[in-house]
Design goal:
3 domains, binds adenosine-5'-diphosphate, six-stranded parallel beta sheet, Rossmann fold, binds magnesium ion, alpha/beta
Length: 576
């Protein structure tokens, strides 16, 4: 026995000890963390085991990016930071993509990564998985911390939690070097060093003058519009938002992940009249939505020539005037801001001019009627609209199911076709339009809500996280994956004009993704018509069994880059 071990043993007789492993777990539990998403390995294998033994649910993935995406969307769904746990350097980097994505989307998340020996890393002496992870993470997230002493674990975890959820939510990196886990300290002192974060996301009450300014502007509007963004969905102020919309009588346009905050079938919903309301509105109230590329930066052709004034509700003051002048900035949390506006509406708020609401309603009916026949086409092979028509009925019949959606055409068309009826039921590619969120989001949605999950995936998009079907089968999650299989990216029909290799955008023809699911004991189904698709999804959602449906789509059906082909640069030079 070494002298150190002997002295620890002697001391144990007098006092109980704890160590870094236990302190991390105790700190997370004290702050209500119930689930960790991660991939085990050096140096955090035992941390995962011990967390599981301590009653935290630990969900092991096959790749850290998917675990990170799971943590991020858990944060969005629960307003508590989702936790992702990874190994050092490469595992950390894999998780970092998800952390950056979470930050971009304003989802609260904490990436906890083990790291190698500081002394060796900092002298660049070539340690196992050597990397200065803290420095790498810092520019890509909202905050980054490293804990070197066991006695600081409580503070480190508390800072990470507060940074993730307060103000504008985002991703936080917490670096835990391998040596920290084995550090021993007195158990009483350890327990006292832990911090339970009080009021981690404090209400931020808007200034009364700012509320009045917003109401005055809204009152004078001839053609007002409310745009609901995913910040509004995140805020969980569902009742207050519904009251504001209904009491004011203003048409509302939901951004993708805000669909269902009020039902898409609500009489004031302008989702099907998007182009018209953006062009013609004179006062636009943004609630938790940024004027970024997804809203054409608030200017240009999309917004038309009619002069516009903006009211913006956001917790982040610097978001104001980011793209155009904001005439009435309302800085605060959405719950408090909307409550203040509702108060200010009083009991005899004038409805917007009937001419405007009638015009919006008429445009909506016209567009809905135009689309209807395309959604009923029951042919093989399916086109996107036919297949989506079936899935639209599924969600109408099961509005509590969670829809995960990624792809190009599969995303853009599903967003328009599938009506949502309840808040936070649509999870998709978000601010970056990123591919690869599918299986991570699906796993976390099932775990955090206990509801059935329908993941509608382009065949290309699915490939980024497809190995997690094993994870879905392993935890026996009620996830039904539908792959819109058109043999490739955008389309499956491209040809390499030079001969030789196949074109860059095509995959193996007539692939059977359903068989991947069978390999892990799940249910695999191959369908060729919308009727078959509907039956297979219904069976999956009713049974709750992990299911993958390979939906055969016409390889010629898609368009380049879906609806954002304009962002795809193309050469104008013709080479002979
Ligand atoms: P979308 O893509 O749906 O338009 P964005 O992600 O662009 O939504 O915008 C979300 C906005 O919501 C961000 O600017 C963020 O600061 C804000 N936000 C997030 N949570 C809250 C909250 N609780 N209160 C106020 N604003 C919030
Ligand atoms: Mg495809």
């Amino acid at each position: 026995m070494s002298a150190v071990a002997q002295s620890i043993e002697t001391r144990t007789e007098e006092q109980e000890l704890t160590d870094g492993f236990h302190l991390v777990i105790d700190a997370l539990k004290l702050n209500g963390v119930t689930t960790i998403y991660g991939v085990p390995g050096i140096p955090i294998t035992d941390l995962g085991r011990m967390a599981q033994a301590a009653g935290i649910r630990v969900i092991s993935f096959r790749h850290e990016q998917n675990a990170g995406n799971a943590a991020a969307i858990a944060g969005f769904l629960t307003r508590k930071p989702g936790i992702c746990l990874t190994v050092s350097a490469p595992g950390f980097l894999n998780g970092l993509t998800a952390l950056a994505n979470a930050t971009t989307n304003c989802f609260p998340m904490i990436l906890i990564s083990g790291s190698s020996e500081r002394e060796i890393v900092d002298l660049q002496q070539g340690d196992y998985e050597e990397m200065d992870q803290l420095a790498v993470a810092r520019p890509l997230c909202k905050a980054a911390f490293r804990v070197l002493h066991a006695a600081d674990i409580g503070i480190g975890v508390a800072r990470a939690i507060r940074a993730a959820v307060s103000g504008r939510p985002g991703g936080v990196y917490l670096d835990l070097p391998a040596k920290l886990f084995g550090q021993v300290m007195n158990a009483d002192a350890g327990a006292k060093s832990l911090v339970k974060v009080i009021d981690p996301a404090p209400a931020q009450i808007p200034a009364p003058a700012a509320v009045r300014r917003a109401l005055d502007l809204l009152k004078g509007a001839r053609r007002p519009l409310i745009i609901l963004g995913k910040g509004a969905a995140y805020a969980q102020a569902d009742e207050a938002i519904r009251t504001l919309v209904e009491k004011s009588g203003v048409p509302f346009l939901p951004m993708s992940m805000a669909k269902g905050l009020l039902p898409d079938t609500h009489p004031q919903c302008a989702g099907a009249a998007r182009s018209t309301v953006l062009k013609d509105a004179d006062v636009v109230m943004l609630i938790g939505a940024r004027l970024n590329w997804l809203l054409s930066h608030g200017k240009g052709k999309t917004w038309g020539d009619a002069p516009k004034k903006f009211i913006q509700i956001d917790i982040e003051p610097r978001e104001m005037d980011s793209n155009v002048e904001i005439a009435a900035p309302l800085v605060g949390d959405i719950g408090s801001c909307v409550a203040a506006l509702v108060d200010g509406l009083g009991s005899n708020w004038p409805a917007p001019p009937a001419e405007w609401t009638a015009a919006v309603g008429a445009k909506r009916e016209e567009n809905v009627a135009k689309m209807a026949p395309r959604l009923m086409k029951n042919t093989a092979p399916m086109d996107f609209h036919g297949a989506l028509g079936a899935l639209r009925t599924v969600i109408r019949e099961r509005p509590d199911a969670i829809l995960v959606n990624e792809g190009a055409n599969t995303l853009d068309l599903a967003r328009g076709v599938i009506d949502m009826y309840q808040p936070r039921k649509r999870l998709d590619v978000g601010t970056w339009g990123v591919m690869g969120i599918g299986m991570g989001y699906a796993v976390a949605a099932a775990i955090e809500t206990g509801k059935p999950v329908l993941a509608v995936e382009g065949d290309s998009a699915f490939g980024f996280s497809g190995m997690e079907v094993e994870t879905i089968c392993r935890y026996n999650l009620p996830v039904c994956i539908v792959i819109f299989n058109n043999n490739g990216i955008y389309r499956g029909t491209d040809v390499n004009p030079a001969g030789g290799d196949v074109a860059t955008t095509v995959f193996v023809k007539n692939a059977r993704y359903d068989r991947m699911m069978e390999a892990f004991g799940g249910v695999g189904v191959n369908v060729t018509t919308p009727d078959e698709l509907k039956r297979a999804v219904d069976a999956a959602l009713s049974s709750g069994k992990p299911t993958l449906i390979n939906a055969v789509i016409d390889p010629a059906a898609g368009t380049e880059s879906g609806r954002i082909g304009n962002l795809n640069p193309q050469s104008v030079v013709k080479k002979k």
